[in-house]
Specification:
Helices cover about 50% and strands about 15% of the residues. The chain is of the alpha/beta class.
Amino acid sequence: MFLGVDGEVAGLIALADTLKPGAKDTLQQFHRMGIETVMLTGDSKRTAVAIAREAGIDRVLAEVLPEHKAQEVKKLQEEGKVVAMVGDGINDAPALTQANVGIAIGVGADIAIEAGDIMLVKNDLRDVVRALELSKLTYRKIKQNLSWAFIYNVLMIPLAAGAFYPNVHLMLRPELSATAMIFSDVSVVSSSLLMKRYERRLRDII
């Protein structure tokens, strides 16, 4: 931008979009995780491509009007992609809702926060990676707990019901059956609490 005084150029002001702290590290981590990255912006294509090249973004969707952002997300979904959308502005709210997972930056607009499935409390893009890793860890723990609970119940319920009594004269008394059920619940809770071991790993992930 030029600054003029009495019709004469008196100065020049240069403006540029800058990357958020940790943006490059976050995008590199996405690539290591096998995640394709897409920039969805209303900025000019020239500006968007320059920023994407600097940050290491795979694909650019530029000059997208606010009301068309959700449509672009839908097009990505129609390509068979599972879309996680990260945004913080009012214009991002429809796209956050359309995405399979909407991730809202906690310091952004209230409507974006309401539209998101996940809210990042801090203005730190690295928390997106941490949220994805925590989701994977939680999902694995759920499957693990369900598997152990299923095996435990398949073995113990017939025993408590006396199914083995006619052949081997083995059966649990009611009070022992109740104790066994309590042990099952405690083991599932204890297994879930072991997730705290990964707290430091998630914190230091980038």
